[in-house]
Amino acid sequence: MSDTVEETTRGGRPEEEFDAFYARTYPWLAARAVMLSDNRQNAEDAVQEAYIEAMRRWPEVRACASPEAWVTTTMRRKLSRDGRRWWFRWKPVEMSVPAATTASVEETAEALAALRALGTLPPRQRQVVVMHSLEGMSYQAISAELGISVGSVGSNLHKARARLSLLLDVSPELGRATERLLTRTPKDPLSVALYGAAEWLSAGFRDEGRALRGGDGARSGARDDVPNRARDGMRGRR
């Protein structure tokens, strides 16, 4: 799902390059944000702010080895920072998510089961298991980003995987936090389940965007406001 630097930055004006980058990466980033936060509104707010910051710093971001990784990290930090605020933690959960119109009944059922299971986890456990078992981040990288010890990463991951393994009827052995699980592999059914849910969510956001652009112009304009707001901010700094 990641873009290469060449695909992201080739040709066109900076505004056009950013618009293309945004359109290509938004669905997958929004999907991961929902899985991290278990709240669509919070997720979309964090994603929007990440893209606005990326546009304001586009010359720097586009020169990165992976602009998408930069935006993803910014989104995660936004969610983590807001998650420490009491009023944010107590916001009601809003898990109304866009359905992938091309998904089969079985794919939809499996994705919803994974999302519901994630929703039963405490915020820290959910963060750690998504970052590790979906995004393939190491204990050390998670520790550095979340500001917790490597031991805390392992403890939260162990509890999260054990809980999800039970709810999703996955082998209990996969609840153990071991070095062999530092990256996603086809032999890890839990990672496969989470990745399937992320793909389903991503397709849903993509389908929703197409429907809004083709149907309700007013609502489409609200979605398009992300690059527009970022572009205005960039111009204001000139």
From TrEMBL:
CDD domains: Sigma70_r4
GO biological process, one term: DNA-templated transcription initiation
InterPro entries assigned: RNA_pol_sigma-70-like, RNA_pol_sigma-70_dom, RNA_pol_sigma70_r2, RNA_pol_sigma70_r4_t2, RNA_pol_sigma_r2, RNA_pol_sigma_r3/r4-like, WH-like_DNA-bd_sf
Occurrences of domain RNA polymerase sigma-70 region (ranges): 22-82
Superkingdom of the organism of origin: Bacteria
Basic and acidic residues bias (residue ranges): 221-238
Gene3D superfamilies to which the protein is assigned, alphabetical: 1.10.1740.10, Winged helix-like DNA-binding domain superfamily/Winged helix DNA-binding domain
Pfam family, one: Sigma70_r2
Molecular functions per Gene Ontology: DNA binding; sigma factor activity
Keywords assigned: DNA-binding, Sigma factor, Transcription, Transcription regulation
Residue segments, region Disordered: 212-238
Record domain RNA polymerase sigma factor 70 region 4 type: where: 113-164
Alphabetical list of NCBIfam families matching this protein: sigma70-ECF
Family as reported in the entry's similarity comment: Belongs to the sigma-70 factor family. ECF subfamily.
PANTHER family from the UniProt entry: RNA POLYMERASE ECF-TYPE SIGMA FACTO, RNA POLYMERASE SIGMA FACTOR HI_1459-RELATED
Protein name listed in UniProt: RNA polymerase subunit sigma-24
Species for this entry: Streptomyces violaceusniger
